[in-house]
Design goal:
- The structure holds 2 protein chains of 2 kinds.
- Chain A is mainly beta.
- Chain A is globular.
- In chain A, strands 2, 4, 5, 6, 9, 10 and 11 form a 7-stranded mixed beta sheet that branches. A 4-stranded antiparallel beta sheet of chain A has the order 1-3-8-7, with no helix packed on it.
- Chain B is globular and about 40 Å long.
- Classes of the chains: A mainly beta, B mainly beta.
């Protein structure tokens, strides 16, 4: 079955630690996205990538980094510079174009120890 | 002021009721409109996708877009307990460059349908 796989489902971070969230898709989509979701808020865009080896900052990129070395994979690193990392992180993919809906994985919940 | 406003609810209705969910927006460049359903601890799943103004129906779900009023709605007929979820509206502009493909979301409305 085609889809988006995010791992791990739950992740805990210690102070000063970087952690990496995995996102893999087998939908053959060119575009991939990372969102952050906080309680009572909509999704906010962290980073997105329209093509391999290229990515752009979204609305809340500070304290995060990404890479796009393969079409299928778009990992997100939450760095120690992100002072409030506790949130639900969602990865999405879609065909390139402003008229294409995005499809989502089931998220990673990140908490601080 | 947020670009997309959505009443967070919560909204509680009896089984069989008609549910109306709404979003307003301020960016007149938005042309593509989506509704997502999100169950607890899951990712959003696409329910409805419409372009420009008009209505679209899919089973018990109807999406309406009124671009002149910058207002979109999702109607659920004969609501079921399994419809209990958070409903997110999302929209995008038909623009090139770095805006291409970016979605802007509402805050989400929490819906509970009780038997």
């Amino acid at each position: 079955d085609g889809g988006i796989t995010q791992s791990p489902k739950y992740l805990f971070r210690k102070e000063g630690q970087n952690v990496t969230l995995s996102c893999e898709q087998n939908l053959n989509h060119d575009a991939m996205y990372w969102y952050r979701q906080d309680p009572g808020q909509g999704l906010r865009l962290i980073y997105y990538s329209q093509i391999v080896n290229d990515f752009q900052k979204g609305d809340i990129a500070e304290g995060y980094s990404v890479s796009r070395e393969k079409k299928e994979s778009f990992p997100l690193t939450v760095t120690s510079a992100q002072k409030n990392p506790t949130a639900f992180y969602l990865c999405a993919s879609g065909r390139t174009g402003g008229d294409q809906p995005q499809h989502f994985g089931d998220g990673t919940r990140l908490s601080i120890l | 002021q947020k670009e997309v406003e959505q009443d967070p609810g919560p909204l509680s209705v009896p089984e069989g009721a008609i549910v109306s969910l709404n979003c307003t927006y301020s960016n007149s460049a938005f042309q593509y409109f989506m509704w997502y359903r999100q169950y607890s601890r899951k990712g959003p799943e696409l329910l409805m996708y419409t372009y420009s103004s008009g209505n679209k129906e899919d089973g018990r779900f109807t999406a309406q877009v009124d671009k002149s009023s910058k207002y979109i709605s999702l109607f659920i007929r004969d609501s079921q307990p399994s419809d209990s979820a958070t409903y997110l509206c999302a929209m995008s502009a038909n623009a090139g460059g770095t805006s291409y493909g970016k979605l802007t979301f509402g805050q989400g409305t929490i819906l509970t349908v009780h038997p």
